[in-house]
């Protein structure tokens, strides 16, 4: 697929993503947690979280909705960027930070993060690809290994808001 095709996919979905984010934020998490993504090859009952990170260069606060899974008690998100040849900005931003903000439905927390390795990574990847099958196509379309990020809640924080 490459960067150009992945960029086209992202552009086509930008309106949906922005609407999804707005719904999640303005409802305080009562809407937007579970979404039907079957139209794009996913499942009807797909769980989404919000992540909040600070730009490593700009120091701007970013909030992004992402599909997540729960694997062995840890929250898992996938840095797929639709199969682009470069990592998503949020992933590069968390590499520069020890913690990340996460909101799941109406609960938010600061979390530590790590990347699974070896056999654990293989198992987590299979689990996430089961939750959202397009991840398999994304991986086939790029030479980079799509990162998996495992999150462990550290402390509760205020839910995210559209104003913040």
Description:
The chain is α+β, with helices and mostly antiparallel strands and 164 residues long. It has one domain (3-156): Pnp Oxidase, Chain A, CATH 2.30.110. The protein has four helices and seven strands, in the order H-E-E-E-E-H-E-E-H-H-E. The protein has helices at residues 2-26, 89-95, 118-131, 134-140, and strands at 34-35, 46-54, 61-71, 74-78, 99-104, 107-114, 148-157. It has a six-stranded antiparallel beta barrel. The longest helix has 25 residues, at 2-26. The protein is globular and about 40 Å long. The termini are far apart. The mean pLDDT is 92. This is Nitroreductase. It comes from Mycobacterium stomatepiae. Pfam families: F420H2_quin_red (PF04075).
Q: Quaternary status of these chains?
A: single chain
State the domain count. 1
**Sheet of most strands:** 6 strands, antiparallel, barrel
CATH topology title: Pnp Oxidase, Chain A
Bin the strand percentage.
25-35%
Note the overall shape: globular
CATH superfamily: Electron Transport, Fmn-binding Protein, Chain A
CATH architecture: Roll
Radius of gyration (CA) equals 15 Å
Q: How are helices and strands ordered from N to C? A: HEEEEHEEHHE
Number of DSSP E strands: 7
Average pLDDT, to the nearest integer? 92
Q: Strands across the major sheet, in which order?
A: 2-3-4-7-6-5
Please give the count of helices: 4
Structural class: alpha+beta
Helix content: 25-40%
Distance between the termini: 35 Å
Short description:
The chain is an alpha+beta fold. The protein is 32% helix and 31% strand.
